[in-house]
Amino acid sequence: MQSKPTVHDTVKRQAIKDAWARKILNKKNALIERKQFLIQRAGRCAEILKDEFLVTEVYLIGSLARPGPIHEQTDIDLVEAGLADNLYFKALNRLYEIAKDDQGKEVNIDLIALEDATDRMKEIVSSMGVKL
Q1: According to the model, what pLDDT value does residue 100 have?
Q2: What's the pTM?
Q3: Residue 1 — very low, low, confident or very high, per pLDDT cuts 50/70/90?
Q4: Most CB atoms closer than 10 Å: which of 43, 67, 69, 89?
Q5: What confidence tens digit (pLDDT) does each residue in 68-115 have?
Q6: Torsions phi, psi of 20, nearest 5?
Q7: Closest residue by Cα to residue 54 from 100, 98, 94, 107
Q8: What is the DSSP string of the chain?
């Protein structure tokens, strides 16, 4: 036969529930802040592509371009128009220099040439892409 929970047991159980609720809320808030940070970084990447590499257009796609939550491994998905083929890796390297999170870890960047994109990718850019 089980004994009735004591007041101490009830208080302890509530403290555990409260701790988990705080942990979940802190994680949610951290991901909201991370999304804002990554969107700001994507904007800076667009500036660099336009100013230093003479790219004519840059679009943000993927989870950063949609409303809603992201996850801890969310990357920056950019589609560009006008980048010279011979400058692709130089440009990507330059973007990685500035795309670090608040702990100094590199943020993954996908840089897609609009000119080489599939028809499906072009549809995504036109329907969901955010021009930067």
Answers
A1: 79
A2: 0.81
A3: low
A4: 43
A5: 888 888 999 999 999 999 999 999 999 998 887 667 778 899 999 999
A6: -65, -40
A7: 94
A8: -PPPPPHHHHHHHHHHHHHHHHHHHHHHHHHHHHHHHHHHHHHHHHHHHHHHH--SEEEEEGGGGSSS---TT--EEEEEES--GGGHHHHHHHHHHH-B-TTSPBPPEEEEEGGG--HHHHHHHHHH-EE-
Report yes or no: 121 and 112 within 8 Å, Cβ to Cβ: yes
Distance set, CA 81 to CA 20, 33, 88, 125, 126 (Å): 46, 29, 11, 11, 13
- Identify the residue whose tokens are 């130089």: 90
Q: Is the pLDDT of residue 127 over 70?
A: yes
Domains of the chain in start order, with CATH, are: 7-131 (3.30.460.10)
Tokens of 114: 């609009």
Q: What is the distance between the alpha carbons of residues 45 and 97, in angstroms, rounded to a whole number?
A: 10
